[in-house]
Structure formats: C-alpha cells, structure tokens
Prior knowledge:
The complex is a heterotrimer.
Chain A: H1 2-26, E1 42-43, H2 45-50, E2 55-59, H3 63-68, E3 75-76, H4 82-92, E4 98-102, H5 109-120, E5 127-130, H6 133-140
Chain B: H1 2-17, E1 22-24, E2 28-31, E3 39-48, E4 54-61, E5 66-70, E6 74-75, E7 80-88, E8 94-104, E9 111-120, E10 124-127, E11 130-133, E12 142-148, E13 157-161, E14 166-174, E15 177-184, E16 191-199, E17 206-212
Parallel strand pairs in B: 2-9, 11-17
Antiparallel strand pairs in B: 1-3, 3-7, 4-6, 4-8, 5-7, 8-9, 10-12, 12-15, 13-16, 14-15, 16-17
Chain C: H1 17-40, H2 42-50, H3 57-80, H4 84-107, H5 126-148
Amino acid sequence: MKSSLVRQTLILVALASLPGIGQALYFRDKVSWQSPVPASEMVTVAQARAWGGNAIWVDARPDVEFEREHIPGAVLLNEDRWNELLPRFLATWSPEKRVVVYCSSQSCNASREVARRLRDEAQLKNVFVLQGGWEEWLKKK
Amino acid sequence: MRTRILAFALSIVFCAAAHAELKWEQTTVELHPAANDKEAVGHFKYQNTGSKPVRFQSVHTSCGCTAAQTQKDEVPPGEKGEITATFKIGDRTGTQVKTVTVDTDDPVNATTVLTLKAVIPQELEINPTFVFWGQGEAPKPKTIVVRAGKDFSIKQLKVTSSTPDFETKVAETSKGQFKIDVQPHDTSRNIAATLTIQPEGSSKTFYAMARVTNAPAVQ
Amino acid sequence: MTSTPATLSFQPSTIPRFVRRIAEFIVGGIFIYAGVIKALDPIRFASDIDNYKILPWAISVRLAFYLPWLEILCGLALIARRLYLGGLSILTALASIFIIATIAAKIRGLDITCGCFGHASKNWSFSAHIALDLSLLAALIALCICERLPRNSS
C-alpha cells in the first residue's frame, strides 16, 4: 500500500506540472517572475513613449526632486501632499488616457503606492508603473 | 612544534574573540501615530557587544519621506546608542512600512535592515474619492460611500461642493456609514468640483472630486 | 455478517459506501472548484500566496501556476477513484499546510483576505475560512481512515 501511495502521489505531482507549465508559458510575458509588481501593470520607457499624447506622466517623487528635474509635461503627485495635488492631476486626466507613474530608484516604492491609490481610491483604469523609473528615462533620453 | 601549533591556535582564538558586534534591541518598530500627527519617530537601540569599535559606513532609507539619524559615527566596545528614524506622514494612509538600511564595518553582520511600521489611523474611508461623467453622459447621480475608520465614529457629515455645477445629497445608510450622491446639472461641458467632506466635531477636512470629462466615460 | 452488540460503537468500516461516495464527490468537487477559480487568475493567486509572506515572490509565482492544477487533478482522482490514495494524501497535506499558514498569518497580524477559494472568498472572515478548511481536513482524514480499514461488504 505504501509503494502504491508513493507511486500515485508521484504520478499526480508529475501530471499536474504539465498544464502548469503550459499555462506558465502562455503567461510568460505577462508575469513578473522575479519581483512582485505584476508585469501587466509595468510599462517600459519605449512602450510609454509610443503612447504619445495619450499618456499622462505622473511623478511620485518628493517635491524637491521634481523641481530639480522631471519628465517634460509630468504632473507631480506624491503622498506627501496627496490631498492638495490630486485635484490638479485629475483636472488633466480623462478616461482614454494612460497614466504612467514613475519615481527614482531611491524612492521606488512611491510609484507603486501612488499607482495603487489611483486605482483603489480614485478607481482609475489604465494606471501603469514605469519600469526602471526616472533613471531608466534618463538613460533612454 | 607543539608550541607553534598552540600559539597558532591561540592566535586564531584571540582574533575570533577580538570582534566587533552590534546587537540590536529590536529591528522592527511598530508605531501608532495619532490622527493629527505629522511625524512618527522610531528608536532603534543598539549596543556594541564586541571588543572592537563599530563604524557606521552608511545609513539609507527606503524613501525620501523617512530620515534616519545616527547619534555617532563610531561605537566603542560596550557602548550603547540608537538610530532615530523619522517618518513624515504627509497624506499617507493605512499601514506604512519603511526601512532603514544600516551598513557597518562589522564583518559578521555588515548590513542590518531596520523596519519602521506606522499604522496611520484613518478617520474616514472615502470610496471612491473621484466620480466622473463623460460629456453627453446622462447626468445620473453617482455615489460616494463614506465610512468611519476603525476606532472613530461619525454622527454627521457636512459636504459642500466648490462649484454650484454639482449637487450633493448626504444620507446615513447605517451606523457610521454615509452615502453622498453627487449629480452634475448638465454634462455638456467640461466641469470639475472639489467636494469638501467634514465630519461633525472633527477639525480635519477630507476631499473627493467630481468631474465631467471631455471624453465619453469608459466604465 | 457479524452481529453488532447492544451498545453500538461507531466503526468507519460500517459507513455505507454511498455515504463515502457522496463525501468524495463533495470534497473532490470543492477542490476542483477551488482549483479552477485559482487557475483562471494565476497572477492574482500569486499575490495571494505572496501575502502570507512565507515564501519569496519567485517561488510564490511558480506555485501559483502549479497548485491549482494539482488541486484539480487530486479532486478528480477522488471522484473518479483513480490514483485515489495519492490524491487523498496530497489534498490532506495541502489542506494541513494551508490551515497552518493561515493561522500563522493571523498570529503575525497579516491581513489575509483570501482562503482556499482565492479571491472569490476575499470577503470571508478569518473564522469562516478556518471553519471551512478544518471541515475539509476532517473529511479528508475520515476518508483516509475509511480507505485504510477493510471495506464493508455492503
């Protein structure tokens, strides 16, 4: 009975891997395999640039970093002054636009948090986080 | 020969014993700031339990909203100290987790990550904070639900719109829960309003936004 | 057939076969349903596993693509009575691990809103989750015991 149990367990474990691998292959470009931010919510600089005027760039960094330099046309929206800055951002937003939130590698959780609040609290659709953030933009400038 | 081996063994023992070691009282601090607090401060106490001084090489935080201060650059053996992490709350909500990464010349534990967890009390939960209509969309009312946060209670809510283009109606749906029905007078032009939400007896003001956008609404 | 003494004592081997079959269908069906729900949205399931903060993301995401299919196959094994022992053992192990992880998350103060039904059960309370999971585990253990004992000739 013991050997039958082991054999059956191994067969099931092996069989389950087939559809699992198939599904993983199907999703391979849609999933972030190493970090928790889902790939479908991240966008590269090239992809965001391709959206042209349909993209609204949102800078989630502290005020002083935004004032030093920012992506041309970007709107400042950080959690330090969320209540004050949100109305200004919403005045520029419209439903067909894609929101691309970025921050710097030093404060990089900020873009995910701002994106999350825009999705959960303001219930906006098409909110993305810029892969590589401000540093990636500078490299591709 | 035996003497040499003994001397060699002893020298290894002495080298191992002469070490630097920074011991932390705790590496995670949970803070519960009050609703009106602007900052939350965490104290991470340490002691050098080794026999050599420990030097701080760098201290950096996970976000610009947290500043960390070491009292000294070098900690002599046996000495105690603390790193103070000050988290600027701003308009953040919910549970915030920020880290402070401390690099030292301690060969055993060169890097320590200190975690500051701040549970920010939320007097009101507003969902959603933004309602909108597309141009030409039927100007039906849309609802914003306002709930009292944990450990808070609301008896009454006062809601005012920054422009007369939007009408607001407040109704209590259950204890501590209200709904705000927002309705534009017309959706033929691009209009926006900030809704000021004030719980009775509270000095804090909350906001929601209403807009008629210049494109059809995508729901 | 042996006659039973005046004071009846419960013997798993005296449970009618149809009762066992009903239990197998219900338990197997629940696991198939749970597996399908999670297989339909593996990305969300990956973040649900990640919320327990036990495994690194790289492992959570790979498990999210594998576990639902294992649940479905083992549920089918229970119903079809093929590879039955294997299916029963795996489901018992999965249910036990799940209960331990849920209790551990609760003790650590993590806000876990998903149980074995993925995001479909996100509004359930902690007690509801644990109650269902423990019921499933109890049913699985009962089926294990029934399987190990000599079958009732009826």
